Amino acid sequence: MTDSALQPTQPTLANEPHDSYLWLEEIHSERAMTWVKEQNAQTEAAFQDAEFEATAATILSVLDSDDKIPGVTKRGSYYYNFWRDAQHPRGLWRRTTWDSYVAETTEWEILLDVDALAAAENQAWVFSGATLLKPELADAPYERALVKLSPDGGDAVTVREFSLTTLSFVPAPEGFELPVAKTSVTWDGPDALFVASDFGPDSLTKSGYARSVRRLVRGGSLADAPEVFSVPVDHVLAAVGKDTTRGFERVFATDAVDFFTSRTHILQPDGSWELIDVPEDASVDVHRSWLLVSPRLDWELEDRTILAGSLVVADWEAWRWGSRELTVIFEPDDAASLEGWSFTKDFLLLNILRDVSSRILLVDPAAGWETRELDLGAPLSSTSVGAVDDEDPEHGNDFWLTTTGHLTPTTLLRGSLDGMGSAESEPPALIKQAPSFFDASEFEATQHFAVSADGTRVPYFQVSPKNMPLDGDNPVLMNGYGGFMISLSPSYLGSIGATWLQRETPAGRKASYVVANIRGGGEYGPRWHSAALKEKRHRAYEDFAAVAQDLISRGVTRRERLAASGGSNGGLLMGNMITTYPELFGAISCGVPLLDMRRYTKLSAGHSWVAEYGDPDLSEEWEFIKTFSAYHLLDSNLGSNENSATEGSAGRRAPASYFWTATSDDRVGPVQARKMAAKMRDMGFADIWFHEDLDGGHSGASDNRQASQNSARSQSILWRYVGR
């Protein structure tokens, strides 16, 4: 054997196809922005009419409603909330007491008025969250916070220390203040922070996230702060967090190898990091004296197999010292999956999906992790539970219960697990009820199953007028995502119900709305997600097409009446509907999308998604990636179909297509939507529309007004093609 034979085989790099639209990747160049402004002007002139304004106003009234439930987080004796309304479009960070929260009129203490801050500093700040410093004494008040502010709605933020006593920022050098970057930060006591950020050359991963974590002390500088943890440049990110549970204080470091695998370490007294010995694909939670593990893949452990999507628990200290005894708390089946868990003082609550409807399980650690289902929720609904404050000495077993459905406004309840099931126990108490924004009595929500190309049953929810004729003449809007193990469970259709569902065709047919629970999502746990990874990506698109075909076969709609929408990974889904299944749809709305899968790893945070899609720089992986790279499928797909909506060169056809994005999107970036729209236009396709907001980040909106206009614009474009 030669020396060269001992060397690892080098992967073959894929060639990069010629791309005439690379100039649109220069995000802020004069040429690119001139093109963007021209496209915006065309789209606005064509669709922003009186009907658009009325739709946007209705959506805004829903988003700005004073009757929305103000969701709160309990810290100490206060309940904190971030709120936007018509008078405060950028929002108010505020707090109240429990007695005031449950009163008919809540009295809020304003901590930070973001609109006033933006005006004072002449900067369009977008509130991105706050992290409070836990006091050392249990009965002491919370006094400091770290406030994150984005200058444009993107992921990059500045971090400033805020006094909860004076209700003002603490200026540097006395206070902490970090420059704008993609930063994660954690308190390490009152006078130090763990900071993962952009520290200059070689401090970021290929995904654009921090690969180094430093410990910054009060009055010090980031440049001089010592590094405490780092990861290789080809991993996704490094992060350090602190468990502040009293009596169980611990510091953890995470090495995110890729989007779905990570290594978790715990800080030792000598400053070294101890790796927690669990599979890298697993979710890990160290809570008090227990280690909880939920593997994404089947886990072969000594003489047993822990199924993917299970939840198991072990004694933390025993596990550290070599014991592999554990208890299975939850095991999935063909219909049920684990969505999440939350500890109260004495119990564990599990959020479960069964055929995409919620179930709640109560687990009692003191009874050997005995599990039983709680009689909470309703069919075809979403019910979630979470602890209020597991360290509250009086209410540590209290929990929030939130319920919602497509036609059922959100309800917030609060209950206690103390004495749950006994004769003295009381059901959860109603705390807040969101209003109805449309007359739900005219509609019905149903669940159906389509059969995909490989025989898999794919669930979908349909919201339609009651007694709707099944003659194919009903306008329908489909929505889907199908990626990153994200589930699309039922939620109240406030703005959709008040606008899209109220639309009528000239023949008087009202619109319907459909949510497709396709593979790639998390509706049936890790197996549902893994079924559409990388070379199996086409399964997600076959599933969505199968739902569309099922709607047509059942007589709900026909191609000319069928629209579809999706954003981000759902935008890639829409790109594949445009290029591979054009015969099924009359119109498509494709938002903040991935589309150019040859260059996605070179754009914004794209490299972090290699575990989901594959690495296009490797020739063997580009071979399957190019089969779902919508930008490149334009060159080979879109066969002739006489019933399709818009004709391009060589008689090829596609649905009417609307691409929308934001200049400030620093996650996916605006360039893929730009390039797809420009290419389709130049190929001769008509009915291709584009719009790009300057700010708003990956969500496409930095306030409710912008969000309402984005939604109204999408609806107006889709309706012109499927509703007239």
UniProtKB/TrEMBL annotation:
Gene3D superfamilies: alpha/beta hydrolase, Prolyl oligopeptidase, N-terminal domain. It holds the Pfam family Peptidase_S9_N. GO terms for molecular function: oligopeptidase activity; serine-type endopeptidase activity. The keyword Hydrolase applies. Residues 510-714 form the Peptidase S9 prolyl oligopeptidase catalytic domain. It comes from the Bacteria. This is S9 family peptidase. It comes from Neomicrococcus aestuarii.
